[in-house]
Specification:
The structure holds two protein chains of two kinds. In chain A, helix 6 links the parallel strand 7 and strand 8 (186-190). Chain A folds into two domains: 1-79 and 153-248, P-loop containing nucleotide triphosphate hydrolases (Rossmann fold), CATH 3.40.50; 88-152, no CATH class. Chain A has helices spanning 44-51, 73-78, 95-106, 111-121, 137-149, 167-182, 194-200, 218-224, 233-241; strands spanning 6-14, 19-28, 33-37, 59-64, 67-68, 80-83, 155-159, 186-190, 203-208, 211-217. In chain A, helix 3 packs parallel to helix 5. The longest helix of chain A has 16 residues, at 167-182. The radius of gyration of chain A is 18 Å and the shape is globular. Helix content of chain A is 36%, strand content 24%. The longest helix of chain B has 38 residues, at 489-526. In chain B, helix 17 (358-382) packs antiparallel against helix 20 (404-437). Classes of the chains: A alpha/beta, B mainly alpha.
């Protein structure tokens, strides 16, 4: 068995009035793509933000590439990348400058050539000198993805990665994610697009009220509800979360 | 500090500067920028022309200014500590929080970056301090510029230290009252010695500095306020030795703050992210044209349903009037204006009794007049849903089955109705004070002025709002760009807008003004001054409203013609 690239153990995240994540444990191995799904307020984004070090867990441990985030956050983050759903780029840095900055932070020796490859792959070639303000939302999302993948991360966290993208870009991003996994990265995708999760995820975790409701490989998840095993993820999602409509 | 963060700070500043310079190629930025430069040049570059400094500045006045630096700096420091419990994290922007916190960077590096980032702004502000010093013959522009720059950095370090300490305390499990202890201690150190030295001001002999100086330099204050006094010497130094003395104090404090910042660093990402998102939402709301009212809306968790009725059928302008009244009363500054006017009424009613002097009554009249004028001048900008903010929803408005005339009429009339409420309160304050001051035979005139002013206040407000709306529709791209990307040019744009409003207002006032004067003169000659003034006000207001209806009709046509995308 491969050593887990992302390891979450008994994660609890409490806010003053609520418990957003409640004793969550799971791991993602190299090459796996974990689809993180659940209704709004299930705790998906909180979990992602805890893993990427933006939120401090109230309890539990998180390890990325074997490094405990609470002990050495900088080393853990060096192996990881978080791509948010709302790309927040620096107003006055061009795309090329964004990549230069990221390359320097992660210490990527071949940043220039790899950046050019990523820009080509994401169809951003020719836009290197543009400022984010002149780009569409989809373009900004692509820039955020390029920045996040520049250092060839071992663990990648995508929060709603396809928001605002056109069909061509969606296809490219899907290919990119599959390629990342094939190259040995552990990927977590949080999304409401169950079709996307079904298409590219190898594993699935369904969350509700901060807890894990279903978890396993796609096949295992489907097997867990025998009468729906031939149906899509949508039917399983509705059944597991209790939103399934009564038969007419 | 991580070299990548240095690169980021430099590129962001340089990029921002370049962007602002490049946009000057567009007339909508270039013309206001020229006006703003002209304003500053006339204000600071030619002291003899516009400056109020007559060259007779006494050393007593300068000493007073130097003394005022001490409470000013103390307030600045206190403010940083007082606000820290509600902002217990370094203030990052949304892009910074979203990108930097997930990168392999240490928290200390992030704090250093946050301290470094505003340096270009501080340099520019330092230049303004230097310009300002040109107006004071005792001051050195060099000292003022350097001092201003250093004081801004000190303020930044002070706020950062306070925020990091609050964050540390929160991490230690302290909440509520405990978080306010540092600011309370600082307040005690500053305020108690001053309070111990306090003596009533009495008649001012030899200048206010003679009264203020002992408060800040005698007794215990001599020692507790010493560092602040020394720091204040830097921008207002009159000799190299003073400057050096102040510089040493600043240097020691900067090092102390910096060391404290580095020692106090604790996990702050969560609070900083929350702070960045809250601030970002407010900035977005303001940039989209909502101004401070949009801030109020962004903070509002619940809104009470209005009791104002709207009939399902009828003229469409009534719907706009209703929409504007409901929204404005909910988020606009009208309630605040009514509250402030109410304080004036109390001052007018009880001031004389408290002070046993006519001066309070005269003061209340002056204050009411000033506030009334300000209300009329500022009402277009007080509108949270005026046309200058609604331009961002131009496509939505244009898609509705409503004419430009109806839309504009609803907005302008709503503004006039809203001004009427605080306007009448202000007038009541003025009248109350005037009745206390006036002799019996003067009371008739006071009554006449009140009767004239009641219809004129909303009519004048209607004129100001109508003219502002006209300007918005004539130059939509100018205004929308100024809202979304404010900058140095905004000063020039506001000057331009003021000039347009003054000119337009003067032209529109000719007929109503003439009518008012004629009726008032006839009334005065016939000895019926109060009814004459009341009638004159009413007739002038009706004439002005008639003119405005015509202007609204004309400008409404422009609204119907313009493209839904003003850019």
């Amino acid at each position: 068995m491969l050593r887990a690239m992302i390891e979450v153990t008994d994660l609890v995240k409490e806010y003053e009035s609520a418990r957003a994540v409640d004793g969550l444990s799971f791991s993602v191995e190299p090459g796996q793509v974990l689809g993180l799904v659940g209704p709004n307020g299930a705790g998906k984004t909180t979990t992602m933000r805890c893993i990427c070090g933006v939120l401090q867990p109230s309890e539990g441990t998180i390890r990325v590439a074997g490094v405990d985030l609470s002990v050495d956050a900088v080393s853990a983050k060096r192996n990881m990348s978080f791509i948010p759903d709302d790309p927040q780029l620096f107003d006055y840095l061009t795309i090329a400058e964004h990549l230069k900055f990221y390359g320097r932070v992660y210490g990527v020796a071949d940043a220039e050539t790899h950046a050019a490859e990523l820009l080509r792959e994401l169809e951003l070639t020719g836009k290197e000198d543009q400022l984010p303000g002149t780009l569409s939302r989809g373009m900004k999302q692509k820039v955020a993805i390029a920045c996040g993948l520049l250092h060839r991360p071992k663990a990648v966290l995508f929060d709603e990665p396809l928001t605002g993208l056109d069909p061509v870009a969606i296809r490219r991003i899907k290919q990119t994610i599959k390629r990342l996994a094939a190259a040995g990265s552990a990927v977590i995708i949080s999304s409401h697009l169950l079709g996307l999760v079904e298409e590219i995820a190898t594993h699935l975790m369904l969350m509700q009220n901060g807890k894990k409701v279903l978890h396993g490989s796609l096949a295992e998840v489907k097997e867990s509800i025998p009468d729906l095993k031939d149906g899509g993820l949508e039917a399983i999602f509705l059944r597991a979360t209790g939103y399934e409509e009564e038969p007419a | 500090m991580h070299p990548a963060l240095l690169y980021l700070a430099f590129r962001q500043s340089a990029g921002g500067l370049k962007h602002r310079l490049v946009r000057l190629k567009q007339p909508r930025y270039f013309v206001p920028a020229l006006l703003a430069i002209a304003y500053f040049w006339l204000s600071f570059g030619m002291p003899g022309l516009l400056s109020r400094n007559t060259g007779e500045a006494t050393s007593s006045r300068f000493e007073l200014y130097r003394l005022f630096v001490v409470p000013g700096l103390a307030m600045m420091m206190l403010l940083g500590w007082a606000t820290a419990p509600s902002r217990p994290a370094p203030a990052f922007t949304r892009p910074e929080a979203a990108q930097l916190f997930v990168l392999p960077l240490t928290r200390r590096d992030l704090v250093r970056y946050r301290l470094l980032r505003p340096q270009m702004v501080f340099v520019l502000l330092g230049c303004f301090f230097a310009l300002g010093a040109l107006r004071a013959p005792e001051m050195s522009s060099l000292y003022a510029g350097i001092g201003g720059f250093l004081l801004l950095n000190l303020a930044s370090l002070n706020a950062m230290t306070a925020a990091l300490l609050a964050n540390r305390m929160k991490h230690a499990g302290l909440r509520g009252f405990w978080l306010h202890i540092p600011s309370a201690l600082l307040l005690a150190v500053i305020a108690v010695p001053v309070a111990m030295n306090f003596q009533a001001m009495g008649p001012i002999e030899g200048g206010a500095d003679k009264w203020l100086a002992p408060l800040l330099t005698d007794g215990l204050a001599r020692y507790t306020l010493w560092p602040i006094r020394e720091i204040g010497l830097v921008p207002m130094a009159t000799s190299l030795s003073e400057f050096g003395e102040g510089l040493s104090a600043v240097g020691v404090l900067v090092v102390a703050y910096y060391v404290a910042c580095m020692l106090l660093v604790a996990p702050f990402e969560e609070s900083a992210l929350e702070l960045a998102e809250t601030t970002g939402r407010k900035v977005d709301a303001m940039r989209s044209g909502g101004g401070f009212a949009a801030l109020a809306a962004s903070r509002m968790k619940k809104a009470r349903t209005t009791k104002l009725k709207l009939a399902p059928t009828g003229p469409s302008w009534r719907a706009v009037l209703w929409q504007t009244l409901v929204a404005e009363w909910r988020v606009g500054p009208w309630k605040l204006a009514v509250g402030l006017s109410g304080i004036l009424v109390l001052l007018a009613a009880f001031g004389e009794r408290l002070s046993h002097s006519r001066a309070t009554g005269v003061f209340a009249i002056g204050l009411s007049a000033a506030m009334g004028m300000m209300l009329i001048m500022m009402c277009p900008r007080m509108m949270a849903t005026g046309l200058h903010t609604e331009m961002r929803r131009l496509a939505v408005w244009k898609a509705l089955p409503i004419s430009g005339y109806a839309m504009l009429r609803g907005k302008v009339w709503a503004g006039a109705i809203l001004v009427l409420v605080p306007g009448v309160v202000v007038l009541s304050a003025a009248i109350t004070a005037a009745l206390g001051v006036a002799k019996y035979d003067e009371m008739v005139i006071v009554l006449g002025i009140f009767l004239a002013a009641v219809p004129l206040v909303p009519a004048l407000a209607m004129m100001m709002i109508g003219l502002e709306s006209a300007a918005v529709l004539m130059f939509p791209a100018w205004l929308s760009s100024m809202n979304s990307e404010p900058g140095f040019e905004t000063i020039g744009r506001n000057l331009l807008s003021l000039v347009v409003r003054m000119l337009g207002g003067s032209l529109l006032s000719i007929i109503p003004g003439g009518l008012f004067a004629a009726i008032a003169v006839v009334g005065a000659m016939s000895g019926q001054i109060a009814p004459a003034l009341g009638t004159a006000g009413l007739v002038a207001a009706i004439a002005l409203v008639g003119e405005m209806e015509f202007v609204i009709w004309l400008v409404g046509k422009r609204f119907d013609e313009i493209d839904a995308t003003p850019e």
